[in-house]
Predict the 3D structure of the following.
Amino acid sequence: MLKLIQNTASVIVAINMVTKRQLGLLFILMGVGAIFAMFAIDLIGAGQFQGIGPAQRQALVVAGLIIFVGATLLPLGNRPA
């Protein structure tokens, strides 16, 4: 939960901010979830292609890019995002 306080300079300060590490983990989880969703679609049998179709291939590339961006945010530590 985000708590906002107002200091004497009338500036609102957020107490619990999202850090770059947390944002990176969120991106990695979203990318991995998208990859699992693409393979779940294959198991259900949606689409016309046997195996991975062109739209799924593009979605997997985008999910891989999201995972890469998340991995680059991890080493930046606990600084606010």
